[in-house]
Amino acid sequence: MPGTLVAMPGVLPEGEPVPRDGSLPATARRAVGARGFGVYVHVPFCASRCGYCDFNTYTASELGGGASRETYADSVLAELALAARVLGDSPPQRVDTVFVGGGTPTLLPADDLARILDGIDRVWGLAADAEVTTEANPESVTPESLKTLRAAGYTRISLGMQSAAPGVLAVLDRRHSAGRATAAALEARDAGFEHVNLDLIYGTPGETADDFAASLAQVVDAGVDHVSAYALIVEDGTRLAARMRRGELPYPSDDVAADRYLAAEAALGAAGFSWYEVSNWARSAAAACRHNLLYWTGADWWGLGPGAHSHVGGVRWWNVKHPSAYAARLAEGASPALAREVLSADEQHMEDVMLRVRLASGLPLDVLDEPGRAGAERARDAGLLDAGAYARGLVVLTLRGRLLADAVVRDLLP
Questions:
Q1: Which helix (H) or strand (E) holds 303?
Q2: Which spans of this chain does the record mark as coiled coil (predicted)?
Q3: Predicted confidence band at 55 (pLDDT cuts at 50, 70, 90)?
Q4: Count of structural domains, the chain
Q5: Per DSSP, which regions of 88-244 are E strands?
Q6: Residues 350 and 263 placed together within one structural domain of the fold
Q7: Which of 110, 126, 346, 384 is least enclosed, having the fewest CB within 10 Å?
Q8: How many other CB atoms sit within 10 Å of the CB of residue 24?
Q9: Of 272, 296, 320, which residue constitutes the final position of a domain?
Q10: pLDDT tens per residue, range 60-86
Q11: pLDDT-derived band of residue 244, with 50, 70 and 90 as boundaries?
């Protein structure tokens, strides 16, 4: 499949215990931020739960005691203070990117989002050209809140559009109207946001080719400079999965998803967008999401918030999921981390190949072992890799290769 809808999983992986103070091995702190440093902030609140959503999010009725939107910014700032202690003698030189995701971050007051960003700047210092993104649902922003966020230093906004078809939005349990996402994108531009992204989901049961074409046309007409498009994945435990098990809706079709991806490439390419990652298109190199590029190229980042994942110097860890447990640990002065793993050289290599193959910038052939290079040669001969890039020593997917990206990766990691 060319792209999948991804975010923090509903079930956290297992790992080894994390010290109560969150301390890291000295080896992990030797060169923090040498390949870039980002901060991810997870805001786990939603007004309602979408039928396809398996992310670590909570509606008001699901929160229970010990956590609230009103005190959430204070908890995040408490974890930030802990992070500053952990990296105290080896802090990053600067924060290159900040990404506030969710959930629906813009359910928090804009002033709280501003306070969190100011806290990050005070602790580590934002680079002069830092990219600062917040996700938002279209119905959760107003012209006034957008202006407040822009004045606070947010430079980029990512709006969850998903579709322009009312019937598709209904199947996904989205609350906004069909035209609200593009209206919010225009409001963000008017508020001074330098970069605006719209997210699309394709392959929803009942979606027609005309529905998706209309969604793409609205995206182009909105004047945004970035588009993400993901194939719908049905996760166990979601309302959408239950409806499919009962036979109320058909399961997504891989063939339909491939057709939708080709339609996205054609429409976005004709409008001046270029792919830079299998599921992401930008109007220019400056419009590419730099925060995601940090993830995809093995840089360091600290994830703040319940369920958030972090990576520093080959050590990856993840926080407890529930906002109440997260707040309680921090109130006790303890790390909210649930578990961690120290990545071996082989694991880091595997992840590097898996992620960088998906980038238009490509993967250097010389990082592959002999069986991997043989797999790359087979993929080139099958038309899955660009022959010109291959001659320059790079693994770069062709359009057909993007449709079969997972298969290409398997061939490079025999």
A1: strand 300-304
A2: none
A3: confident
A4: 2
A5: 95-102, 126-136, 156-162, 195-202, 226-231
A6: no
A7: 346
A8: 20
A9: 296
A10: 777 777 678 999 999 999 999 999 999
A11: very high
Those residues whose C-beta lies under 8 Å from the C-beta of residue 378, and which sit 6 or more positions away, are: 411
- For residue 124, give the H/E element and its range: helix 110-124
What gap in Å lies between CA 376 and CA 396, rounded to an integer? Answer: 10
Instruction: Please provide the average confidence, as pLDDT, over all residues in the chain.
Output: 94
Q: By C-alpha distance, which of 82, 87, 94 is closest to 24? A: 87
User: What is the DSSP-derived secondary structure letter of residue 337?
Assistant: E
- Determine the Cα–Cα distance for residues 280 and 171; give it in Å rounded to an integer: 24
Question: Are 105 and 224 members of one domain?
Answer: yes
Instruction: Give CA angle at 285 (283, 286), nearest 5°.
Output: 90
The one-letter code for the residue type at 48 is S
Tell me how long the chain is.
Answer: 414
What is the per-residue pLDDT for 238? 87
Residue 207 within a domain: yes
As given in the structure block, the two tokens for residue 369 are 């072992």
Q: What is the rounded distance in angstroms from the CA atom of residue 21 to the CA atom of residue 15? A: 17
pLDDT of residue 235 exceeding 90, the answer is no
**Is residue 339 included in any domain, yes or no?**
no
Print burial letters for 163-191: b (CB count within 10 Å at least 16), e (below 16).
bbbeebbebbebebebebbbebbebbbeb
Handedness of CA 294, 136, 286, 389 (dihedral sign): positive
**Per residue in 301-360, pLDDT tens?**
999 999 999 999 999 999 999 999 999 999 999 999 999 999 999 999 999 999 999 999
Domain assignment of residue 404, yes or no: yes
* The residue to which tokens 């997260």 are assigned: 326
Token code pair at residue 245: 């098990």
- Is residue 176 scored above 90 in pLDDT? no
Range of the domain at 74: 26-296
Query: How many other C-beta atoms lie within 10 A of the C-beta of residue 90?
Result: 16
For residue 254, count other CB atoms closer than 10 A to its CB: 12
